[in-house]
Design goal:
The chain has 112 residues and is an all-beta fold. The protein contains no helices and 11 strands. Strand 7 and strand 8 form a beta hairpin. The protein is globular and about 40 Å long.
Length: 112
């Protein structure tokens, strides 16, 4: 079974940058669509963006132009590059794979 592990979260100032990583186990990673979600305390989990097996990306409107999703199949890794971050980006960020497989999440806090 595929397992996911996020890393790279932490404290960052408004306007700063952060790169999250999600490493997957298993041998079918390269065939999977991968997604990023986030959840702030007391709020519903929301979709951030995704990347297809072929590298095509889509993003929610509030992060478009600031966040970039990429993948490195040889390393079974998907990335979320976060630029020009805002306080409202504060949340636990989750990686999701096909077959409804989720990571444990990594905390991102945007504060001055």
């Amino acid at each position: 079974q595929v397992q996911l592990a996020e890393s790279g979260g932490g404290l960052v100032q408004p306007g700063g940058s952060l790169r999250l990583s999600c490493v997957a186990s298993g041998s079918i990673f390269s065939l999977m669509s991968m997604s990023w979600y986030r959840q702030a305390p007391g709020k519903a989990r929301e979709w951030v963006g995704d990347i297809s097996a072929g590298g095509i990306t889509n993003y929610r409107g509030s992060v478009k132009g600031r966040f970039t999703i990429s993948r490195e199949n040889a390393k079974n890794t998907v990335y979320l590059q976060m630029n020009s971050v805002k306080p409202e980006d504060t949340a636990v960020y989750y990686c999701r794979a096909d077959y409804n497989i989720w990571g444990q999440g990594t905390q991102v806090t945007v504060s001055s």
